[in-house]
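Practice problem: predict the structure.
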Amino acid sequence: MDWDNIRFFVVVARVGRISLAARHLRVDHGTVSRRIAMLEKGLGVKLFDRLTTGCVLTPAGERLFATAEEIELKLLHAQGDITRTDALLTGTVRIAAPDVFATVFLCTCLGELKALHPSLTVQLVPISRTLSLSKREADIAITIKCPTEGALSVRKLIDYSLHFYAAKPYLDKYGRPKTQAELTRHQHVTYVYDLLFADQLNFVSDLYGPDYRRLECASAIAQFAAVRSGAGIGIVHDYVAYGDKQLEMVLPGMVFERSYWVITHLDTRSLGSVRAVSDFISQRIGASRGMFHPDRAAG
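Answer:
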């Protein structure tokens, strides 16, 4: 049995579509189909039911998938043991994180991580949905929701705060609201409600009523850019606005608090590469704690 064919099989089993597996593997659709056909012919069994909605594992496919994952995991741990022995981290670690955290914070420090481990490939994936660690869509996930199910290692990364902000030219032109009631006189930059992928992003479900004029943006990065350009008042992460002289905090007494969580799969958390990247992120967060919750830092 050709392990390379099993590698193709595992990817199809995880993503559920041959076309998507081809993109993951960076080959064409026909190559993936041929590999699966060769594997099925060699085993003498059907591994997938091919439906219009995708590829679904047959009972034989489910048994092979379970065994293949066990083998894959042993290989990963063997690689981890070797890299620890040789003090050289190799391989690929994929980090999935909310778009604003990935773009504003992680992007600024991953160069330092690469300098520490030049043979390690780091993939940063800004997300607008939750990726599956069990399907190996990511090795490390930074989330704003603490998961309660699954074979996962979960720990709080940091608490962070958000406030209303606006560009100074906007406030000079339209005035500075002194109370929550005065917010109704202003243009607001906010989220697209039906595209929220986590309840924790719904900061003020009863604040933006029908009387509010608003520009809705689907990502936090887009909201920040719109606020900074003078489009209106919006809720911005304090660490994003930190040190930005273009922005001014509005109604400082109104603070919104959330948390980031770092999550790894129990099967892979002990791998040297995953552990090194996770520890690095935690260390960099610790060194920058004041910008994530300025109110606490000031206290």
